Structure formats: C-alpha cells, structure tokens
Amino acid sequence: MKEVNVGICGLGTVGGGTFNVLERNAKLITGRTGINIRVARVATRTPRTDINLGDIPFSTDVFDVVNDASIDVVVELIGGYDTARELVLAAIENGKHVVTANKALIAVHGNEIFEAAAKKNVIVSYEAGVAGGIPVIKAVREGMAANRVDWIAGIINGTGNYILTEMRAGREFAEVLKEAQDLGYAEADPTFDVEGIDAAHKLTILASAGFGVPLQFEKAYTEGISEITPYDIAHAEVLGYRIKHLGIARRREGGIELRVHPTLVPRSHLIAQVDGVLNAVLVDGDAVGQTMYYGPGAGDEATASAVIADIIDAARAVASSSNQRVPYLGFEPEAMENLPVLPMEDIQSAYYLRITAMDHPGVLAKIASVLSEHGINIESIMQKESEFKDGRIPVIILTHTVQERQMNRAIEELEALSDIDGRVVRIRAENFEG
Ligand code: HSE
Predict the structure, then answer these.
(1) Confidence of residue 387 (pLDDT cuts 50, 70, 90)
(2) How far does the centroid of ligand 1 lie from the alpha carbon of residue 192, in Å?
(3) In whole angstroms, what is the distance from residue 131 CA to residue 103 CA?
(4) Is the pTM here over 0.85, yes or no?
(5) I want to staple 18 with a disulfide (CB 3.0 to 4.6 A). Which of 152, 153, 161, 304 is the partner?
(6) Which atom of ligand 1 sits closest to the CA of residue 185?
(7) One domain for residues 185 and 286
C-alpha cells in the first residue's frame, strides 16, 4: 500500500484534534483512500501530556518538520502571521504540500504563498481556516465551479455568534466571552473574534475563491459586536429581525463589497436560526441560486475534520502521478480579475436606526424630513413610550436599501439637530437578495 508521511506543526486545540482523529479513524481513512497516511513527525513549542505520541519523532522546533526529507505533507497549525509564513514558505521551498488552518496567514500572505507554491507545483490548502468543519471552500471552489458567484454572506465567527446568542437570552457580554474562551472557540487574541478581524480574514478568502479576485484583506471593512446592546437586540426582534455578525461579499459594477459588521437579518430566514458556535455561509450562484452551508465553525475535532480532508487531498496528489490540481483560489491565475474592493461609502444596504429624540411635537416630522431629503425610504418606524422618563424618547426606524454615503450624510444631519440627543445607533440590515 502507498504510504504518505505527514508532519504536524502545532499541537494546540486543532493540532490535538487532528492527531486524535487521524489515529482514531486511520483504518477508515485508508479504506477511503487506499493510502496509509502516517503521522511521521510532530513539533510543538508546548508539549501535551494528554496526547500519547508513541514513538513518533517529536521536537519543539517546528522547522524540524519542514527540514525532514521524509515528510510529504506539512500541516501548519501554529497560527499567527510571521513564523507561520516563514514555515509555510520553507515547506514550499522544500517541495512539500502544505495544509493550514491559518486564515490570518492566507488572508494576509496568501497571494505570496500561492505564487511560491505554483512555482514548486505543490498544494497549499486551507479549508479548516474558513468556517471550521464546514467544507465550504470545497463547495465554492469545486461544487460551484459551474457558477458565476454573485454574493456570499455568512456567520463565520463562532465566538461572536455564541456571544450574540447568549446575549439574546439576557446574559452579559464579558461573561459569555470568557466562556467561549474556556471552550477553546476564541482566538488567542479574542479581539480578533469580537471586532470582526477573524471573520474578515475568512470573508477575504471566501470572496477570492468565489469571485476569482486576489486576496485583499487590508481593504475589508470590519465592525465588531462590542457596541451591540441588549436593547437593540430586543428591538430588532420586535421588528421581525435578529442581529447577527455577518461577513458580506458582493460582486458589483467595477468592484466588490467586502464587509463584516453586525447585521439585522429577517427572523424568518434560515440564517437567523443559526445559533451558538455554529457557522453558516450563504453562497449565491447564477446557475444554482442560493445555497447554504451550515455546521460547527470552531472546536478541536470539528476543525480537524476539515484539516484531514485537505491532508487526504494532498496525500492523493503524492500517491498519484497526475498533475491536475484544483487551483489555489479555484481559478487559473490568468482568469483572475483585478476587481478592487469598493469603498464602504459605495455599498448598498438597508438600515436599522435608533435615535434618541426629545419628546415634543414635530420631532418625528423633522427626522422623516432629513431622511427624505437624502432619498431614504422608511420601511417601518416605531416610537416607544419613553423608557428614559426624562423627556427623551427612542425612535426606531428601519429603512429600505440605500447607498451608505447617503446614510452617512443623513446621520450627520440628524445628530446635528437640537431635538436629537447623542449619537444615532446604526445597524445595517440584509435581506439576501441581489
Ligand atoms: N475563533 C474562531 C471562531 C475559531 O470563533 O470562529 C474558528 O476559526
């Protein structure tokens, strides 16, 4: 039987899960592939006493894996940018296939990494980096290869979704974040989860694989969930919406939208039912229409499931003589389009606005007049009996789709009115059409 040697770099949450599932399901994987996939070396800076490596060679220097001539596939699970980049580039240079779960690495250094890999004719795959265990990269690059992908939208950070779900049940933000960290869902720096950076890494990769454009993480717009209040969560529900932290990428004339922010989604839509650490990605293709991929977005063995699927693809490439490969981002380099990321002012969205107004006659008319002057159409308006008991009253408005530029101007004018107290709270809304 053919044998393929795998070297695992990093034995944290995902590394440990990958090792355990490879061991447990070894027979099943061999049955599916006809290949004996052997873990031939493991390297990690922090050894684990709960994992029995048996006689597998072990070191604390991850570069030992890359420099081991017997290793065919390097699995990068150390995370971070700099050492991971060096490690992956060194593995490629040594002619090894690479599997990584590192979305930050691919989103930021992917263009450079794929160029180096193409020169050496090696695979670099990253399924586990996007939406954990959900095989959405395979779906977009292969399953939807017949389609022009028009937009992608998803809940792609499990920690953030877990926090919003628990806040809806009345729990405190900080307490739930701590719990998500203890459960191993959060990034080493949890601001990556909470501020949308992790989701923007994943969205950048999805957009490139969907649209065939270079990775442009630095242009992505990110807005976190730390300012979301239980008040807005409750009022969105009254209006028939739920607040989710979405990544949205949309193909537009002359560019793409690439944005992560809290978003009102209709409660009747399937994505509104995606709770806890679960992720879901909607992908709209011109032939197939709207598709949705749903499942665990984080966790040791769930993520290992995706890592191992990539290891199996690489092992098949090692074991076969064919050079026919799925391109790194699903498109041949000459077919990639240089579509820029559009400035945030050019995106189009519906909006939820919460305005704190002084409770006296004519104030609603003034608000409506500012919105109308900027061509903003109101879908619904709700004026709550004052909960502040001090002459101020919350006015909640849901608008039709409008350009962000118009909304920015309108909010500036609203905030300048003497009848308005403080800042206008604005949350974008999405109906998943066009
Ligand atoms: N911190 C990430 C999340 C892990 O919560 O989604 C999976 O990428």
Answers:
(1) low
(2) 9
(3) 10
(4) yes
(5) 304
(6) 5
(7) yes
Which CATH number do you get for residue 77?
A: 3.40.50.720
Which pLDDT band, with edges at 50, 70 and 90, does 391 fall under? confident
**d(CA 419, ligand 1 centre) in Å:** 43
Distance 221 CA to ligand 1 centre (A): 19
Which residue out of 130, 159, 201 has the highest number of ligand 1 atoms within 8 Å of its CB and is therefore the one to mutate?
159
187 and 127 share one domain? no
Residue 212 has pLDDT above 90, yes or no: yes
- Chain length of the chain: 434
Last residue of a domain, one of 335, 357, 388: 335
Residues forming beta bridges with residue 222, ordered by sequence position: 260
Inside any domain, residue 317:
yes
Contacts of 110 (CB under 8 A, 6+ apart): 126, 205, 208, 215, 328, 329
pLDDT digits (tens, 9 = 90+) for 234-244: 999 999 999 99
Give yes or no: residues 291 and 304 share one domain: no
Number of the ligand 1 atom closest to the C-alpha atom of 303: 7
Q: Looking at the structure, do residues 275 and 391 belong to the same domain, yes or no?
A: no
Whether residue 151 is found in the same domain as residue 65:
no
**247-257 confidence digits (pLDDT tens):** 999 999 999 99
Task: Tell me: do 144 and 289 sit in the same domain.
Answer: yes
CATH of the domain at 378: 3.30.70.260
Query: What percent of the chain is predicted at pLDDT more than 70?
Result: 99
The total number of structural domains in the chain stands at: 3
Which residues does ligand 1 sit against, CB inside 6 Å? 132, 157-159, 185-187, 193, 198, 297-298
pLDDT the model gives residue 185? 87
Catalytic positions: 202
Please check whether residue 349 is in contact with residue 402, taking contact to mean a CB–CB distance below 8 angstroms: yes
- Characterize the bridge pairing of strands 348-358 and 289-296: unpaired
What's the rounded mean pLDDT across residues 254-275? 97
Report whether 75 contacts 6 (CB < 8 A): yes
Cβ neighbours for 390, distance < 8 A, ≥ 6 positions apart: none
Strands (E), 128-274: 149-155, 221-222, 241-252, 255-266
* Residues 141 and 281 occupy one common structural domain: yes
Q: Which domain holds residue 352?
A: 345-429
Residues 20 and 113 in one domain: yes
